[in-house]
Task: structure prediction
Amino acid sequence: MAPSGYVMNLQPFSVNDGDGIRTTVFLAGCPLHCAWCANPEGCNQTRKVGWHIRKCIGCGECAKVCPQGIGIDLNAEREKCIACGKCVEVCPQKARVLMVQKMDADEVLKQVQTHRLFYSYSGGGITFSGGEACLQPEFLNYLTEQIYDMGYSMDIETCGVFDFEAVRPSLSRMDLIFMDLKHMDSAAHKRWTGAGNERILENMAKLAELPAEVVVRIPCIGGVNADEDNIRRSAAFVHRTLPKARMELLPYHEFGKIKYEALGIPYEHPEFLRPSKEEMEHLRGIVREEGVEVADFR
Ligand code: SF4
Ligand code: SF4
Ligand code: SF4
Result:
C-alpha cells in the first residue's frame, strides 16, 4: 500500500527550483525554526486551514458549515478549529485554504504527472521542498522510487538536518541537491534557527558520496549572516568539502508575510534587512574569490 504524508502544496510551473519547468512538492514538518521562515505552515506535521482576509467577501458560507460553530473571523476562534476542511470546500473566494493536508503518495504521483509534457519540453521535472522534505523518509523514498521509474528529473531542497541513511535511496536518485547553510558559527545558527550547524556540515560533506550536482544555498539576511566573514568561511568550507559544488546566495525577502497573516500569526522582524543588489554582488564576489562557482536559479 502506498504511504501517506503531510503535504503543504504541489506547485506547478516552478522555475526557480532547478532547471526547466518543475512541479515543487512541499512536504510539511521542519526540525529548524528559522526566525525568518517564509513557510510557517510547514513547521510541523498537522493539518492546517488558513484564512486570507484580503480575499474574503464576508458571505458567511464558511460559518454555515463549520461543525465547531466558528464564524467568519477564523483567527478569533482558531483554537476551536479541527481543520476538517468543510469551509474550504464552500468558500467561493478561495479565502479559506488547506495549508497542510495528509495525502496518499499515489495521489501526489497522479498530480505531478499531469504536467509531464512541460517537464519533457523544458528539461524540467519534480523538486521536493518543505518544510524539510527529508523528514518523512518512507513517503519520500516511495515517491522518488516511482518518479525515478517514470524517468522524470528530480531535485531536492533541504535544510540539511536529517537522518542521511534513512533518505540515502532518495538522495541517490536526485539530479540536483540544494542544501542550505545558514551560518558557519554554530552558536549563531542556534540563536536564529533553534539548532547548531554540526549535523548540516556533516550531512553536507556526505553529499560527496552521491552522483547529484550540489548547490549550497545561503539565504542572506542583513543583521544575521550577510557579512563578509560568514560568507567567506561558508565558501571556504564548501570548497574544501565539496570542490565541485556551486553556491547560490539569495537575498532575504518577506514573501512569507501573507502566510503568517492567513494563519493568524504575528510577523514582525524589523531587525532583518534585505541586502542591496550591490551588497549581494559583493558577497558573490567573495564566494568566487574562495574558488566556488556562483549559481543563479532566480
Ligand atoms: S466563505 Fe470564504 S469568502 Fe465567504 S465569509 Fe467565509 S472565508 Fe469569507
Ligand atoms: S476547517 Fe472545519 S473546523 Fe476549521 S473553521 Fe473550517 S469548517 Fe470550521
Ligand atoms: S529550514 Fe526552511 S522551512 Fe525550516 S524553519 Fe528554516 S526557513 Fe522554515
Observations:
- The beta strands are 4-14, 22-27, 48-51, 96-104, 125-130, 153-158, 176-180, 213-220, 246-251, 293-294.
- The domain at 4-44+104-294 is CATH 3.20.20.70 (TIM Barrel).
- The radius of gyration is 20 Å.
- The first strand starts at residue 4 and ends at 14.
